[in-house]
Every structure is written in C-alpha cells, then in structure tokens.
Design goal:
Strand content: 15-25%
Distance between the termini: 59 Å
Helix content: 40-55%
Radius of gyration: 31 Å
Strand order of the largest sheet: 2-1-3-6-7
Largest sheet: 5 strands, parallel
CATH class of the largest domain: Alpha Beta
Shape: extended
C-alpha cells in the first residue's frame, strides 16, 4: 500500500468525498472530525500526510500545523482554506505546512499535491532512519569492551556528551580516539549537526590554516574565490582535532581565540567570522611537557583540557581482545563473502600474549590478514612474522620446519587447491606433492 493520508475536517460530506478520491489512488486513508482525534490517530498510526481544514471545532488548522510539525517533523501537512482565508494558508506554510488548497478548487489538484507531499514525507523518514543508524553505529554503548578500563572511559564519555564542554582525548595510537569523538557527538544535542574530523599532523602550517579557518579570494596565489574553513563547516556541530600536539604554535593562538570568543579571522580577511562549534581534541603526546618546553601553548592546553578523557591501551584491557577478535572476524568475513571462521584457542592465546604497539588498529589489521588466510579457522600460522617473537609463537630456526609451516599456510589459503598453491609458492606441482608427502601434510 502507498502512504497513509489523514484527513481532519468536521464536514462529514467533504471528508467522505476526499476519502473516496484519495483511496482510489491506492493511498491508505484515515479520518478525524477534530484536531484532538487527529492527534490521537497520529500517535497510533504511521501517517505520511495530513490534510486539515483551517476551521476545526477544537482548534485552528494553522496552530495544528505547528503542533504536528513540532512532534512529527517527517509528516507533511496540507491545509484546506476557504476563499476568504487564504492568509491562513500562508501562515500555515510559515508554520511548516507543505502547501494549502482552496476549498472548491481542490479535487483536481489534491492528487498531484498528495503524491509530492507523500514523496517528501517518505524521503524525510528515510533520512531519519539513516541518521538513526549512524547514531546507533557510533553510540557510546556500541563501543566494544567490558573491561573496567573501557567501561570507565565509556561512562565518562556519556556524561560529558550531555554538555558543550571541550574534551581532550588522551591515549596511544590506535586506541579509538576518533571513535570516541564521534560517539560523544552522536550522544550530544548536536547529533543532527555536522561532525568534522581534521588530522592536524597531515597538513603543513599554511595548508592547515586555510583548511581550518578558510580564506578570502586573493589572500594568496591560487585563492581565486572565498573558501569556507572546516570550523565554519562544523558550525553548530562538532569539530574533532586529531593529533593536536602537531599543530603549529602560530595556529594554536588562532584556535585559542575560537575557544575564548567563538571568533576567528579567515586568511586575508579583516572581519571576524563567528561560529558556534564544540571542539574535541586528541593527542598521544604529553601536552603539559610540550608546554613546559615551549612547543605548545600552555593557555591553549588548559582551555583544551577542561575535561580530559584517557583511553586505555589494548594492553590495559586484554580481557577485551576476545570480543574484539570475534567482531573483526565477522566483519571481514562478511566483506570477503566468506563463512565466519572459528578462532582457535592457540590463536586467541597468541593475541592475548602479544604486546600491542598499535592497539585496536593493529589488532584489526592482524585479524583482516588472518581471515584472508583462513580455511575455516584462525590459526597461529596465519599470524604475521613479528608474532613469532612472542612466547606463544617461538621462532622457527629449522629450515625444513619453516618450509613445512609455509606450505601448510598456503594450502590453507587455497583451501587445498594444490595447483594454485604450487603457483603461489613458485614451485612445480610435482615438487609440491613430494613436499606434502615428505612433511605428512595430508
């Protein structure tokens, strides 16, 4: 069935006529004789478009339009007005109505108008659903882990998300600082506004200044037109400044002005630009020590660190490795269109004994590689070479044993296809068969 239309009108004959015309087009139709009954139907039913008379026994269609749009922003409202009250229709549009129709002239116009209104309503609903999926994906609750360290970080993130306070995320590389920044944004009242992420270490001083603050036409060679900076793009939302410790000290003073006044000057501009933006910064450096050494402004450090949030390293939360491994295994298996492989106990033990310099990001890369090489199970043999230095995976010094391990690994990768395995090993098929027999791999 097509979209559902709700008709609110106290004139029974007119309501019945509209209902028949609309239902013949395949729309679902609901009827109400007054605003109160109509609002109750909206609470229970999935309505896309409301057609409401201006004059109602218990309300005014203009006021009703605002009430509907405030509570159900995805629902479109079409107002019916008499010849002498066109101004009511105009006021209703200012309150958010899709359009208005003059009574007596609506039969030939109502159906095309309803199709347009229903299409817009359904588009708005899809946008709301997509925004909901994004919010769910980046919600604080969806950050994986049950260790005390990660639970404490999630709890603090949830509390600060309800405010506009500047946040400084501290932690090693790969601990999920951008994930936390996005989650804080999606849990805040700014969730429907822009979230802009900037890597301060990826750009040189001049380029970062132009990207962050924008520039006026003619400010420098190649600046042929005015350009909005990322701070302006993030206006009313959140900007995430990753690797803030890498920012040039001259730019730090401009950022400090934004934090103190909400204003900045674009490159080449003599008038300030004002923004309302929340700043979340992140670093793996000791900014306090940098400040003492003159490499980072102390006043900026204090403004950024109103609320510091330490993200634990993976080595501080080894009890979370199992759930993260299962998640990444399922994720990459789905991307590669492969059955989800089992995780062998030896594989998991090796992961837990490994020292994770790259934290969760490193684990993610290791699991992706292992899933590529898997033949139904994640085994120690699919781990990278540097794991061979771990106690769980001793270095193989015997050449024959190393050859056996490599041949077995490639056979797992090719799912037993010996012709393909011989090609990848760059040996003759007969040689492969001989090695398989020699090492008793079958």
């Amino acid at each position: 069935m097509k979209a559902t239309i709700l008709i609110i009108d106290d004139e029974v004959k007119l309501r019945g006529l509209l209902s028949r015309i609309i239902s013949l087009e395949g729309f679902g139709v609901l009827e109400a004789g007054d605003a109160s009954s109509g609002l109750k139907l909206l609470e229970r039913e999935d309505v896309s478009v409301v057609i409401s008379d201006v004059k109602l026994p218990d309300s005014n269609g203009v006021d009703l339009t605002k009430a509907i749009k405030d509570k159900y922003p995805s629902v479109e409202v079409v107002v019916l007005t008499a010849f002498g009250t066109i101004s009511d229709g105009v006021r209703a549009i200012k309150n958010g109505a899709f359009d208005y129709l003059i009574k007596g002239d609506d039969n030939e116009k109502i159906i095309p108008l309803l199709y347009k209104a229903a299409e817009k309503a359904q588009l708005q609903m899809r946008i709301v659903q997509l925004e909901g999926k994004v919010a769910d994906k980046y919600s604080i609750d969806n950050i994986l882990g049950l260790s005390p360290a990660i639970l404490e970080a999630k709890d603090l993130a949830g509390k600060v998300a309800q405010t506009d306070t500047t946040v400084l995320l501290l932690g090693e590389t790969g601990t999920g600082k951008e994930v936390f920044a996005q989650a804080i944004h999606e849990s805040s009242h700014r969730r429907s506004r822009p979230f802009v992420a900037v890597n301060c270490s990826a750009l040189g001083k001049d380029i970062l200044e132009s990207e962050l603050f924008g520039h006026k036409a003619g400010a420098f060679t190649g600046a042929v037109r005015d350009k909005k900076g990322l701070l302006e793009e993030a206006n009313t939302g959140t900007i995430f400044l990753d690797e803030i410790g890498e920012m040039n000290i001259d730019l730090q003073s401009k950022l400090l002005r934004v934090l103190e006044t909400g204003e900045f000057f674009k490159v080449g501009d003599s008038k300030p630009t004002r923004v309302n933006v929340r700043i979340i910064a992140a670093t793996n450096r000791d900014l306090k020590r940098q400040s003492e050494q003159g490499a980072f402004r102390l006043d900026l450090f204090y403004r950024l660190s109103v609320f510091q949030l330490h993200l634990p390293s993976l080595n501080e939360r080894t009890e979370d490795i199992e759930v993260l491994t299962q998640y990444f295994t399922s994720l990459f298996a789905a991307k590669m269109n492969k059955p989800v492989p089992k995780v062998s106990p030896e594989f998991l033990t090796a992961l837990k004994k490994h020292y994770w310099k790259g934290n969760t990001r490193e684990l993610k890369n290791v699991i992706e590689r292992a899933v590529i090489l898997s033949a139904g199970q994640l085994l120690i043999s699919s781990l990278p070479f540097d794991f061979a230095r771990d106690e769980a995976v001793p270095v193989i010094f015997d050449l024959a044993e190393a050859e056996k391990v490599q041949i077995n690994k490639v056979l797992q990768y090719t799912k037993g296809n010996k012709t393909e395995a011989a090609r990848l090993l760059n040996i003759a098929l007969a040689t492969l068969y001989r090695k398989i027999k020699e090492y008793e791999l079958e």
